[in-house]
Amino acid sequence: MLNKQLKNALNQIFEENELKVLRIHNLMRLYDKISNFIDYTVDEDMLEKTDTVYTETRYPGDIGMLPEGKPSIDEAKELYEFAFNIFQKTKASLMKDK
Predict the structure, then answer these.
(1) CA-CA distance, 98 to 30, in Å (whole number)?
(2) Which residues of the chain have pLDDT under 70?
(3) Cα(3)–Cα(27) distance, rounded to whole angstroms?
(4) pTM greater than 0.90
């Protein structure tokens, strides 16, 4: 779910800049394509971690959702706060341009 929300937020940058919206779920690829259009940076390690959680929940393996297993409540909160922060920064960036 976090991956989808982050993907939607990043895709708003594509739309705002009249770029073709990419139909991919890889957040790192999306971020690489829009990083020149935003005025904030994103913790790429957290972005990769969010991608990993998405991939492992979409295509579950034997080890859980992260390479080290099922995320703890603290890790889940950290991922949520990361996603919420990007959403807020993206929203502020888009509102600033209006």
Answers:
(1) 23
(2) 1, 54-69, 97-98
(3) 7
(4) no
What is the number of other CB atoms lying within 10 angstroms of the CB of residue 28? 14
Number of domains in the chain: 1
Give the pair of three-digit tokens for residue 8: 């939607």
- Nearest Cα residue to 79 out of 50, 41, 36, 48: 50
Question: Residue 66 phi/psi, 5° resolution?
Answer: -125, 160
Q: What is the DSSP string of the chain?
A: -HHHHHHHHHHHHHHHTTPPPP----HHHHHHHHGGG-SS---HHHHHHHHHHHHHHHS--SS-SBTTBSPPHHHHHHHHHHHHHHHHHHHHHHHHT-
**Vertex 7: Cα angle to 3 and 11 (nearest 5):** 175
Distance of CA 51 to the CA centre of its chain: 7
By residue range, what is the domain housing residue 65? 2-96
